[in-house]
Every structure is written in structure tokens, then in C-alpha cells.
Amino acid sequence: MSSSSAAARREGRAESASGRPPMRQALVAAAFRLFVERGYEQTTVDDIVALAGVGRRSFFRYFPSKEDVVFPDHERCLADMTDFLAASPEGAEPVRRVCDAARLVLRMYAEDPSFSVQRYRLTKEVPGLRAYELSVVWRYERALAAYLRGRFAGRPDGTLRADVIAAAVVAAHNNALRSWLRSGGLGDASTEVDHALGLVQSAFGAAPAATGPGADSEDVVVVVARRDVPLWRVVQQLEAVLGRG
Amino acid sequence: MSSSSAAARREGRAESASGRPPMRQALVAAAFRLFVERGYEQTTVDDIVALAGVGRRSFFRYFPSKEDVVFPDHERCLADMTDFLAASPEGAEPVRRVCDAARLVLRMYAEDPSFSVQRYRLTKEVPGLRAYELSVVWRYERALAAYLRGRFAGRPDGTLRADVIAAAVVAAHNNALRSWLRSGGLGDASTEVDHALGLVQSAFGAAPAATGPGADSEDVVVVVARRDVPLWRVVQQLEAVLGRG
After folding, report:
1. What's the CATH code, domain A73-218?
2. In whole angstroms, what separates CA A44 from the centre of its chain?
3. From B218, B226, B231, residue closest to A220, measured CB to CB
4. ipTM for this prediction
5. What mean pLDDT, rounded, does chain A reach?
6. Element (DSSP H or E) covering residue A226
7. Looking at domain B73-212, what is its CATH homologous superfamily?
8. Cβ A168–B172 below 8 Å, yes or no?
9. Which residues of B touch A245 (CB under 8 A)?
């Protein structure tokens, strides 16, 4: 459950299953019905409000433009992500934390699979929506990078590492998300996303993991060996690194 | 030197230092002078052609829209990148190869530092240009990912790994490129970019390096251990993984 829908529930506001207030939800439903039937470009805001049975002003109260009705939940999700990262415990492993933040986006998509699949198909067909989506993805990536930059401040290559990890997390998340959307939103999206984010954590999680108090990258030893190297050579090398033996 | 400017030289066509034909170069120069003096939004295509002393048709022969004149070399650079990746030797280490492909973008920026710095400042100020730039960056990323997907085809997590590495390469390249642009285009951009791409190669280069004939990821064993774990536990674990002992 997102924090904003939780807040709405606490305040006793009526909400649809998608977490959107009813009139907003009616506008989104009308818009998507028309986009699918007539095409995105051929649908006007007037068509949408006529089908939803509300006035133009109601539309623009919720959405600055026709494009925004295609992505009705991203602003809420971006706010949830920012709140989540700001509330991170000091000792949280940073790469794991941004992976968990990315899962909030997945949860938004998984809340309403058929809507998400419809939008995915629409976005692939309309270049303007593709551009809009890229700018949304960029904002998620910058939110993750900003958190990591704070956590890696003062470390060598801190901003570089932050930017690279944020991009890798977004790419992994979107690879798994798109695969789920292409499949028609069937099955459990989170298993695939967990697996994808695991790849990023294994590539980048080790070094930043050693940032907590009392931990140090010196505490971790990494050994990479070819299978055909004799075990005694590996142990010898380990002893040399550990300063024992 | 890019392959397209090399081709122009072979054909004896006149070219400016930036690798652009003279009339195209005159249009770009006129456009940027006006963008800086009046602002991007306040400058029309008519203003640009008047200053350059050419007709409107000449403008649209080179540029589909006003936005395109801000990024006059990306299409050439994208084509160069695609050619470069298509011409990759079969045994090329894939992560190294996409890093080298990314360096083609850097070279384009470094060909004309003052122009690149002007554009960087303009792009930061004009939201429409920012969106345009995101779509260009996305196309570079997909070109790198497409090559990697081909190289990793049939491997577990091949497309996932390809997408993550492509995103990481682009993020590292752009982190270093932007730092150079922010500094006003002073000094050698390539040192910083090499360092940034080195981080990606060290994170991802090892596993895909084992793709040559006769090599297999099964051949490599990676052990990560905390320093405070007794050596015998590490050796025990190694023996278990290697199936010996």
C-alpha cells in the first residue's frame, strides 16, 4: 500500500482499488477506453470529459494535459519514493535501499495489471508518450541517484558510483517490468524484478555495503579464481591477502 | 575522426573543423548566437535563416525542426556508433567494446568544446530540449544494449545483463562528460571518461570476459568473505564450490 493511499484511508476519503479518487478514476477510465477505441491522437479532452460525464474544468483540476492522464500515478509514486528514501535508517545498505525504492514503482504497476498493460501498448505506439515516459523514468533515476550521492558523499567516485548504480537499478527494474508487461501482466511481477535487482546488488552491493559504522571495505576479501587453478594456489593467495598463514 | 567526416574528406567535400558542411555549420552558428542573445523560445527559424543569409528551405533540408539544430551531430554519431559495433571482432570483450563505442560520443563533444558547453547550458534551461536530449541518450543506450544482447544471446540473464550494462556505461560516460561541461570544457575530457568507464568495466567486465571460445562462466569461482571469518571456513566453502577436498 502506498503512503498516500494509506493517508486517504485514514482521512476516510473514498478511493478506488487503484488508489485514485472516483472522479479522477472515471476520467482515466474514459480516456483509456477512447485511446484504445479511436487512438490517442484522435481523442480530445472534450471527448474524454463527455464520456466521463464531467466538465472540462474537472479534467484540468486533475491533469495539466492529455499526456498526464496516461500516467496518472507517477507523481504520487515519485513522492512515495522520495519519502521512502528520506526515511531511510542511517545504517541501511544503500544499494539495497534504492532497490527497495524501485520496488515501489513495480507495486504501482502491479496494483492494476490490465491498466498497466494497456498503457504499455499505448506508449509503444505514440512517440510523444514515449518521450513523456523517458522524462518520468529520468526523474525516478535522479531520485535514487540523489539518495546515493548523499550516502556516498566524501567517498572517492561518490557521485559517479551513485549515478551508475541508480541507472543500473532503473534498467534492471524496467527490464523485468517490461517483460511482465509484454506477457500481458500475467503471473507475479515481483519475482522477476527481485531477480533483476539481485544482479545489480551482486555487482555493486558489496563495496557500498561496508559503509556503516564500524564497517570498512578492508573487512571484506574478494577472491576470484579460475576453476582450473589448483586449490592450494587459491589458499596461498587468500593467506597472503589476509596476512595469515 | 568520425567515419562520416573521413568519407567527406575522401570525396573532397569542404568541411568545417566541426565536421559539418559549411551551410549547415553557418545555420548552427547563427542559431546558437540567437539562442544565447534572445533565448531559445524567442528565436524563430526565420530569425536563424535571416542571420545565416540563406532561405527557409535550406534550413529544413538540414534540420526537421528548430530542436534538431541544437543537436546537429547526434545522428552522425549514432550512425558511427552502430557501424563501430557492427564491425566488432568476434572475440572482442563485449563490455570493453561498448565502453569504446561510448567514447565516440565523447569525441563528438570534445571536437568543439565551446559549442558543447553552450549547448549544455541551453539544454539545462529549456525543458523541451532536455526531453529531446533524453530521447537521444535513450537511442545511444539502445544501440549499446542491442550489441550486448547479441553477444549475450542464449546466456542466462542475457538481455537483463545487456540492458543493465548499457545503462551503466551511459550513466558513467555522462557523469564524466557533464563534469567536463560544467567546468567549461577545460582540460582533457577523456581522462575523466576513461576513469568512469573503468568503474563499469571492473563491475561487469569480469563475467562477460569469459565468453570467448573455450571459456565459460562456470570456469570462474568468486568468493567473498569478511575478514573476521576464519580461514578454514573460507577454504571449506571454496572446497564445496569447487567440488574438491
Report:
1. 1.10.357.10
2. 30
3. B226
4. 0.77
5. 83
6. strand A220-226
7. Tetracycline Repressor, domain 2 (1.10.357.10)
8. no
9. 231
